[in-house]
Amino acid sequence: MKLRKLLGRWMVLCFMAGVTGLVLWRVVSTSESAQESNKTWSPTTLKSPIQVQVVGHDFVWRFRFPGPDAKFDTKDDASVEKELHLPVERDIVFLVTSDDYVYTMTIPDLGLRQIAVPGLTYPLEFRVTEECSIDIIADPLCGVRIFHDEYMGNVIVQSKTAFDSWYKEIQ
What we know:
The protein is of the alpha+beta class. Helices cover about 30% and strands about 35% of the residues. The chain is built from 2 helices and 10 strands; from the N terminus they run αββββββββββα. The strands form 2 sheets. It has a 5-stranded mixed beta sheet, with no helix packed on it. The protein has a 5-stranded mixed beta sheet with strand order 4-10-9-6-7. Strand 6 and strand 7 form a beta hairpin. It starts with a helix and ends with a helix.
């Protein structure tokens, strides 16, 4: 009788260890695949326009893409300062704002101009049809250019493949 009881407990323990092992394996493998999918995700996978949060701060433009969750200000966002890369032949929406001063975002080569005001967000929609590199000009509202750099950033428009490679690097 003792042997039967001992074998019964041993089988229950083995079963519980096996189930626990399977659960842990599933949790770890799911976590790794989620991390891997975030690394391979890119805004170019979206069918909708690519949104970029553009924030003026200390006379520099900061650019933020939402991550796979498609929400800004979460831990999966990708951010850069001064140099922004965009894919060619895609609809883009800049969400322009400021952290500190009132700025004017001016990209003359694309015919774009939008004001950036702290606490307010203004959309700026456009599409670039050819690969190029474009300066974002400093357009000070105070009218005194000597207090500001000549430009506040650069936009590099490139192929989808080149953009996806760049985006992977900044994640």
